[in-house]
Design brief:
Structural class: mainly alpha
Distance between the termini: 57 Å
Number of strands: 0
Oligomer: single chain
Radius of gyration: 20 Å
Strand content: under 5%
Length: about 100
């Protein structure tokens, strides 16, 4: 197997919440060049990469964290929370001419 690292670690990087920026950050902290071939990787580097990956919140844990934060905002009765509750756009977009899917009638 002489593939690039991107192909070898593709399954890990397809998780929810790990994009290009996070991938580059993880590989840089491990001291790995992205253009390196996977045959040149050592076990120490893979162990270090796994340790670094444990520090990042991704996948179902990230989805849970987002849902909890939305529930928290709704329970505090903030403007953002009321927008979530009434299914209006949250970040200040217009609702009169746009956001037909996000607007409740």
């Amino acid at each position: 197997m002489n593939n690039k690292i991107d192909l070898k670690l593709k399954k890990i990087f397809e998780e929810y919440g790990i994009g290009l920026k996070t991938k580059k950050k993880l590989l840089n902290t491990c001291g790995v060049n992205i253009r390196l071939k996977s045959a040149n990787l050592k076990n120490k580097v893979l162990l270090l990469f796994r340790k670094q990956l444990k520090t990042v919140v991704y996948g179902s844990f990230l989805k849970e964290k987002i849902k909890e934060s939305i529930k928290n905002v709704i329970s505090l009765n903030t403007y953002k929370g009321t927008c979530h509750r009434h299914k209006h756009p949250v970040r200040g977009q217009r609702t009169r001419r746009n956001a037909k899917t996000n607007r409740k009638k």
